[in-house]
Amino acid sequence: MNKKQLQDYSDAWNKHDIDRIMEFMTEDCVFEPGGGPEKFGTRYEGYDAVQKRFIEVWTDIPDVTFVDAIHFTDGNYGCSEWTLMGTTRDGKTIEVDGCDLFTFEHGKIKSKRSYIKNRR
């Protein structure tokens, strides 16, 4: 993958286009979001589990967008920095900086590990 493909992936997130997002993922992809009980957060393994979790993001934050994205790639690795903005179902406004670290395989995303600033 390259920088432009990561921007296309980010654009698909902002359009809430799950089919387009999943075109970028391998069948055996792994997603580790920014939170969860384990040291890596929570791990979702496999296409269906990752897809389901991605959809839940829009359920939790219906108007979520990722702005000011900066993307880097180097061989089979990549990084996207962004600001997540949105409103939760209970009306709480969210604005938080974060990044995704990617591992690529055969031109697709094999793993996505998200990290966010912790704001209390």
Characterise this structure.
This protein has 120 residues and is an alpha+beta fold. It has one domain (3-115): Nuclear Transport Factor 2, Chain: A (Roll). Helices cover 27% and strands 44% of the residues. It contains 3 helices and 6 strands, in the order ααββαββββ. It has helices at residues 3-14, 18-23, 47-60; strands at 25-32, 44-45, 65-74, 77-87, 93-105, 108-116. A 6-stranded mixed β-sheet has the order 2-1-6-5-4-3. A hairpin with a 2-residue loop joins strand 3 (65-74) and strand 4 (77-87). The longest helix has 14 residues, at 47-60. The model has no long low-confidence stretch (mean pLDDT 94).
β-strand amount: 35-45%
The overall strand count is 6
Mean pLDDT: 94
Order of helices and strands: HHEEHEEEE
Shape: globular
Question: According to CATH, what is the class?
Answer: Alpha Beta
Which class do the helix and strand fractions yield?
alpha+beta
Q: Roughly how many Å apart are the termini?
A: 35 Å
| Unreliable stretches | none
Q: Classify the fold: give the CATH topology.
A: Nuclear Transport Factor 2, Chain: A
Count of discrete alpha- or pi-helical segments spanning 4 or more residues: 3
Q: Assign a percent range to the helix content.
A: 25-40%
Main pleated sheet: 6 strands, mixed
Radius of gyration (CA) equals: 14 Å
User: Can you tell me the number of structural domains?
Assistant: 1
Can you tell me the CATH architecture? Roll
